[in-house]
Design goal:
Helices cover 40% and strands 16% of the residues. It contains 13 helices and twelve strands.
Length: 374
Amino acid sequence: MIGSFRERVTPVPRFPGVAFFAFLRNLTCDGFYTSKIGIADLQYRQHLPPPVPRLPHFAGILVSNFTPASHSDIGLVELLSGGRGMPTITPERFAKIVEGVLADRLKPPPRLYHYTSQEGLLGILSSKTLWATRIQYLNDSTEFSYTLALLKKAFDLHVVGQLWAKVITHSPLRALDHLRSHPIHVACFSEKQDDLSQWRGYCPGGGGFSVGFDSDQLGKAADSRHAFIAPCVYDPDLQSHLVKQLVDGFIKEGFTERDKDFDAKKVSWDFTMDCIFLACVLKHPSFKDEQEWRIVSQSIPPTDPQLGFRKSRTALIPHLRFELTEPQVPLNVHLVVGPNPEMELALESATSLFAATNCTGPAVSTSVVPYRQL
């Protein structure tokens, strides 16, 4: 016999009907006699909680790999990397991350321009170095967190009605939250050599310069630091496609049964690494007019001798000194003098500096933007 007692209802004095029907219901037990076949046909499961789905073997390993042992970045990196150290990425691996979306856009234009002040220009040309800023200190306040939000949205599309996916995706997202302050440094450039918004944004007070570096020379410099050059992506559709491509691959791996010898920790590490470096090039659409390219460093440990700090209005800003050429190799640049009320004098002194620092490249030119600060 299958039986199920009804839940008792407390009579309400003001409603005698409730009390009457509650009395009758409490005298009965719903049930009927049936056979074993009938029980099977009813799919009767007794009064037990719903079973918890068993995670695929590999998915369970992924979850354990993404559970932070501590709340520190270093502890989490060590846990995820399995002793591999700080995250690294090669230009080839980055090309694979964006394959099919940016494949035809990974080669930079012949020159990439960096907007700077007079002080910045003197430092760049005299030392042949550039300061790559730690990504959390750039002027876009959503750096990294913007991509993290896209990742969460992409994961959400997988977890609707899937308990397995919810378990798998919670831990890596938590891990990425902890890694949003990871020590990656970027040097920023633009395809535009004479852009009003960048004169105003990066050369306050006027008297700024746009330094056009030879892309081949930049590429060699990036290789020497195991860094890579990549364009920023502003288009929301492209961003969503890149993130979805990355998440789909990870979820597919998470639901695939593997042999016990399969290196699930490496898959965890690779996914985290790919997310971190993809976050370095996805930018909010409001910055699209800058047409930015970046040199993206590997993760830099705090003991790196090339690390330094510079002051700002609100905080000390960590930066990485990025050597552009060997000391004996001339720097190939195109120097553009920004809007200036004394343009003739500014052009003359910039041309002298160009010669004094043994630079090669096109002749120094001037901005055609009719901008002044009164």
